[in-house]
Amino acid sequence: MLNPLTEIYRDQWLLAVHKPAGLLVHRSPIDKHETEFALQYARALNGGEHVYPVHRLDRPTSGVLLFARDSETARLVGQAMMAGEVSKTYLAMVRGWAPESGVIDHPLREEPEDRRRKNEPQPVREALTHFRRLATTEIPVAIERYPTSRYSLMELQPKTGRKHQLRRHMKHISHPIIGDANHGRGRHNRYFAERFGEGRLMLAATHLSFQHPETGQPVTLYAPPEESFVRVLGVFGEIPAQWQFLLEDH
């Protein structure tokens, strides 16, 4: 069986991979019938030995996914995550021309894993996202009430780790992520799915930076967006040169 994960970093304590869009990290109430998970494929890359996921990526999100190769390393990285000492950077394509930069400080109600509990009272947690606009485009297609349609390529950095934080925050500022079935705009999602022959969430985790839990050295993991993501970015024409490196393999 072909392993869909691409290894991007390995040492005695850590294993990092690129997860494609559409793959669950581990078993979840979201889809009880799913039989393939990033966790099992990472275990295969680790010679069949157990690995410990230290964070999560939503099923439709692609990008850098980090595993610990032992429980103590998992504990230390988990502590760093909770303390806000791990930096995450994402690329996203959103509807409209977003502001050049800013901070979204908007608390979010927790979303339970089990959808049967969605009507139960849930706590509201603080949530903070920094953003920067990298490029804009306007295409001559009337998707809503205007004769043209505008989009932005964004760099997003969540400073907290709430479920679906980036998707919910971009909706909150009226610039939903393209391909987001739950928080996006259906007409735009359908347009891109039809134009490119497949629909996908235009959200990719490209960078993960932290202090190594064992050596203390700074580590920055990078994975360029997968082909299906870059193909949709063709609507931008030429990405400004200063941001082009974000799309290239290093």
UniProtKB/TrEMBL annotation:
GO molecular function, one term: tRNA pseudouridine(65) synthase activity
Region annotation Disordered: where it falls in the sequence: 104-124
Keyword vocabulary terms for this entry: Isomerase, tRNA processing
InterPro entries: PsdUridine_synth_cat_dom_sf, PsdUridine_synth_RluA-like_CS, PsdUridine_synth_RsuA/RluA, RluA_PseudoU_synthase
Key word Transmembrane present: no
Any GO BP annotation: enzyme-directed rRNA pseudouridine synthesis
Ranges of Basic and acidic residues composition bias in the record: 106-120
Enzyme kind, highest EC tier: isomerase
EC number(s) given by UniProt: 5.4.99.26
Superkingdom of this protein's organism: Bacteria
Domain Pseudouridine synthase RsuA/RluA-like positions: 14-172
Catalytically driven reaction(s): uridine(65) in tRNA = pseudouridine(65) in tRNA
Function: Responsible for synthesis of pseudouridine from uracil-65 in transfer RNAs.
Record protein name field: tRNA pseudouridine synthase C
Organism: Marinobacter persicus
